Backbone:
């Protein structure tokens, strides 16, 4: 655990169970701490301060290069957000940049892939980030709603994509939580595997819960140690549920920092669940969890993992009822 003079990056992990379990593991490397910061549910200004603090502690060339890129990434993004045309308007001057904003929401409980978003307001064009921000602040009212804001530099041939921002409500405050840019700075965004296993056993009932979800997403856990010595984490859950129809099951890889390849972090929203919390349409998940847990206790982890895949990929409802 970090000393008093250093920022406590573990406090950035919102899931209490994961946060306390990882505090007991060997200290995270500086680059692993940076990965937590990058996907954190916090304003980008806080992320820049935290990354700058990590950079000051870097000792190896690899750490300095990686954290230097990350610091430059946020410095550049925040500078781009300030823009050049704050007072620009049609007829007043020739704008050099233009911004587009669209409000949307997504929820794993409703869609199989978070990038499939529901746009509930038509896209709007603006001449400054401030104007786009002010418009978005009137529409984003819930934690699972998000405003995406894009910036384009106006060139002779065509606009050049410069920046994308995600604007959300965090603890009641409207702020930019995630930024994306094209080019070499994008290197810092690559996928990262979790350095430690998550504190759940095969057959545990879990849920993804928090302000970014309109309702909890319940699932059953599977943890397997691969031949390569890496822990593989999976969550089986109901992707869709239609009245009068058999539920459709899917399995999601939970072994990376990103949740379902989007900007949200696995470390923030995953926590234990009780079968009493399951809605009536998902009671079957409680039966699946009990079956797999019983196999794990009587026959071991490998047998439980095999049962997990059998139940979630081969006629799951009928097998569960036997």
Residues:
């Amino acid at each position: 655990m970090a000393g008093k003079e250093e920022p406590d990056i573990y406090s950035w992990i919102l899931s209490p169970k994961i946060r306390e379990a990882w505090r007991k593991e060997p200290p995270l490397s500086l680059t692993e701490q940076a990965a937590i910061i990058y996907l954190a549910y916090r304003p980008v200004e806080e992320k820049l301060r935290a990354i700058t603090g990590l950079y000051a502690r870097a000792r190896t060339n690899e750490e300095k290069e990686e954290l230097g890129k990350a610091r430059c990434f946020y410095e550049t993004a925040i500078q781009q957000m300030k823009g050049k045309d704050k007072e620009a308007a049609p007829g007043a001057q020739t704008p050099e940049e233009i911004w587009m904003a669209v409000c949307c929401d997504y929820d794993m409980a409703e869609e199989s892939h978070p990038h499939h978003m529901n746009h509930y307001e038509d896209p709007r064009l603006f001449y400054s980030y401030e104007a786009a921000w002010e418009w978005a602040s009137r529409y984003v009212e819930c934690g699972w709603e998000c405003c995406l804001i894009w910036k384009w530099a106006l060139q002779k041939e065509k606009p050049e994509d410069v920046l994308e921002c995600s604007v959300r409500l965090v603890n009641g405050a409207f702020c930019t939580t995630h930024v994306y840019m094209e080019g070499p700075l994008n290197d810092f965004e690559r996928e990262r595997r979790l350095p430690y296993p998550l504190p759940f056993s095969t057959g545990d009932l879990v849920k993804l819960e928090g302000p970014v979800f309109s309702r909890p997403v319940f699932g059953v856990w599977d943890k397997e140690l691969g031949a390569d010595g890496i822990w593989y984490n999976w969550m089986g859950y109901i992707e869709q549920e239609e009245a009068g129809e058999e539920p459709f099951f899917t399995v999601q890889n939970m072994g990376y920092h990103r949740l379902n390849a989007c900007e949200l972090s696995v470390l923030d929203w995953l926590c234990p669940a009780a079968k009493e919390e399951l809605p009536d349409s998902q009671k079957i998940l409680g039966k699946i969890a009990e079956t797999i847990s019983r196999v794990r206790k009587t026959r071991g982890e490998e047998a439980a993992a095999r049962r997990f895949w059998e139940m979630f990929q081969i006629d799951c409802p009928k097998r569960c009822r036997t």
In short: The two ends are 47 Å apart (CA to CA). The CA atoms of residues 72 and 185 lie 8 Å apart. Confidence is low (pLDDT under 50) at residues 111-116, 314-322.
